[in-house]
Design brief:
Helix content is 37%, strand content 22%. It is of the alpha/beta class and 605 residues long. The strands form four sheets. An eight-stranded antiparallel β-sheet has the order 3-2-4-1-10-9-11-14. It has a six-stranded antiparallel β-sheet with strand order 5-6-7-8-12-13. It is globular. The protein starts with a strand and ends in a 17-residue tail after the last helix. The protein has 20 helices and 24 strands. Bound molecules: fructose -6-phosphate.
């Protein structure tokens, strides 16, 4: 959840670390800090809130040195205060940490008994104190860090810096990602390659349990058993690391607008050159599969819920969907013929990763639907299918969601093909339908100005309900999530038919009800539910196609989308949901790309 970076440089490192932290700010922005070693002297600066505050502090209180570590925090243990901000320091040891040390209370008590007192409420300070203790026992910095690592339980990515050591940095990874960057006479550490992109494109991804001793001459990597490990150096594509706003006011606006191109690219990648047949890896095989399990968190989970409809309709197979944090603890009944699909934009979400590890030896096959190809989930699933959305920087997922949907739809078609519920011609027809997706999505994006005006009215509400039936139901859940997470307006999504079983009690003239309803087989039923809302003075915003809007008659507000094939409606209807949330958030003046209390990559349980 936090972002960490380290540089053994040939110039002043504070500006470089700040730049890298800017690229990691999506991982958390409760506080930020940097520590450097300058001619042997360890020093640090820390500030609460966004990176800009640290940047300001460094203007007044510069930090010199060519070796340094930095951190941007999403608070877990301890409030977001300067004292609790990283780097944590004990004597001559400074540490930055991403993750949670589960046994920190026991270690803390042990250290207290030895007379070593903590100044903060964090688990990270324990790491610094323990390492300092090992140093005072006569160990070298590398041995002291290794001895500390051996005592830690939980998930972490760590970077250590030591007083008196201008040419030494130690990193470690267990459960949280960490990459080593190779420069010319410089070495780096970072939570991801994007952070290191301004400095290098040569990256080594550490494996689980690895730790690394860095000097300017290179990296010495050890595995969890302390043996020397050879890990490949790969060149990352710099186009995968571009993180500018491209002229848009927010990353979210840019990412919403990118969707037609993203879907086009994903189609080109996962179909054969004719565009008439699927081109998926051989391991993606549902022939002997007896059920499909879809596991994810947040927006990915709503994509899974949409996909359930596709798998059931197209492949006539039993599907279960679950939130990763629930799945792993509820003793799911597994089948050795099941295919388990894990959906994650970042590929690092702790709960989804843990759910994968929990079931991978008990099911026939695991498939990852991921955006970051080097992520843990990508590496640990039997086969990982990229959604090819490119870097998604805005905390609220948009292009990640629709690209996940597309890949899941392709998987459902493959399942239908493998199980014989779809003929070759039917698959071809469906793929022909998919070819219209980017163009239809562009048409939906063209409603931007109209949606902006409606969002201004929506932004006045205290609470908003979203309703949908069939695949529009999970979409209503996603639409509500988008609105609440970036505009802070309370919103809930319901299956239209569920309204009268309780939520209808909330309806009055102050309550906008957004109805997502293409003119499909379920439309009339949804319209009846809409009438029930209007009869109670609820304000209906209907999102539909021309036929649907005409049939529905007068409503408070409406958004006209193109008429779209039922199969791809979820992707198209995601667009007005995203734009409504975006414009409502603009009206409310919230921090659209970095909403309060959130972080992009949730690497803690
Ligand atoms: C909401 C959002 C989150 C993520 C969730 C899972 O807009 O982005 O709900 O979907 O944290 O993240 P990933 O997909 O990285 O596993």
């Amino acid at each position: 959840m936090c972002g960490i970076v380290g540089v053994l440089g040939t110039h002043e490192v504070a500006p470089l670390i700040l730049e890298s932290l800017k690229r990691l700010e999506y991982r958390g922005y409760d506080s930020a800090g940097i520590a450097t070693v300058n001619n042997g002297t360890l020093d640090r600066r820390r500030a609460v809130g966004k990176l800009i505050n640290l940047s300001d502090l460094l203007v007044h209180e510069p930090l010199t040195g060519k070796s340094g570590i930095g951190h941007t925090r999403w608070a877990t243990h301890g409030a977001p205060t300067v004292t609790n901000a990283h780097p944590h320091r004990s004597g001559g040891v400074a540490v930055v940490h991403n993750g949670i040390i589960e046994n920190f209370k026991a270690l803390r008590a042990e250290l207290a008994a030895a007379g070593l007192v903590h100044e903060t409420g964090t688990d990270t300070e324990t790491i610094a104190i323990l390492t300092r203790l090992h140093l005072t026992q006569g160990m070298t910095p590398a041995k002291a860090a290794a001895a500390t690592l051996a005592r830690l339980e939980g998930a972490f990515a760590l970077a250590f810096l030591f007083e008196g050591e201008d040419d030494l940095m130690i990193g470690a990874r267990k459960g949280s990602p960490l990459a080593v960057g190779h420069g010319d006479g410089e070495m780096y550490l970072g939570s991801d390659a994007i952070a290191l992109a301004p400095m290098t494109d040569r990256i080594t991804y550490l494996e689980e349990g690895d730790w690394v001793v860095l000097t300017r001459a290179g990296a010495e990597i050890f595995d969890a058993d302390g043996r020397r490990a050879n890990r490949a150096v790969s060149r990352i594509r710099l186009d995968q690391t571009q993180v500018d706003k491209g002229g848009y006011r927010h990353f979210m606006a840019k990412e919403i607008a990118e969707q037609p191109a993203v879907l086009q690219a994903a189609l080109a990648f996962h179909l054969d050159p004719s565009g008439q047949a699927l081109s998926l890896p051989d391991e993606v095989d549902f022939s002997d599969c007896d059920r499909i399990t879809l596991v994810a968190c947040g927006t990915g989970f709503y994509a899974a819920q949409v996909a359930k409809y596709w798998f059931e309709q197209l492949a006539r197979i039993q599907v279960e969907t679950d939130i990763a944090s629930e799945y792993r603890y509820r003793q799911p009944v597994l089948s050795d013929k099941a295919v388990a699909i894990f959906i994650s934009q970042s590929g690092e979400t702790a709960d989804t990763l843990a759910a994968l590890r929990h079931v991978r030896d008990q099911v026939a096959r695991t498939i990852g639907v991921i955006n970051v190809p080097t992520s843990s989930i990508a590496r640990e699933t039997d086969v990982a299918l990229p959604i090819l959305a490119g870097p998604e920087i805005s905390v609220a997922s948009t292009k990640g969601f629709t690209a996940q949907l597309l890949v899941l739809l392709l998987l459902a078609l493959k399942a239908g093909q493998d199980r014989g519920t779809l003929s070759a011609d039917q698959v071809k027809d469906h793929l022909a339908t998919l070819a219209s997706l980017p163009g239809l999505m562009r048409q939906a994006l063209d409603r931007n100005e109209e949606i902006d005006k409606i969002a201004r009215k929506l932004a006045e509400a205290r609470d908003v309900l979203y309703l949908g039936r069939g695949m529009m139901y999970p979409l209503a859940l996603e639409a509500a999530l988008k609105l609440k997470e970036i505009s802070y307006i309370h919103a809930e999504g319901y299956a239209s038919g569920e309204l009268k079983h309780g939520p209808i009690a909330l309806i009055d003239k102050t309550m906008p009800v957004v109805v997502l309803a293409p003119r499909d087989a379920l439309f009339e039923k949804t319209v009846s539910n809409m009438q029930e809302v209007m009869a109670r003075q609820g304000q209906v915003l209907l999102i539909s196609d021309p036929a649907g809007l005409e049939e529905a008659g007068e409503v408070w507000q409406s958004i006209t989308l193109p008429t779209v094939p039922e199969l791809i409606a979820p992707m198209i209807y995601a667009v007005p949901a995203q734009l409504l949330a975006y414009h409502a958030a603009m009206v409310r003046g919230t921090d659209v790309d970095q909403p309060r209390n959130l972080a992009k990559s949730v690497t803690v349980e």
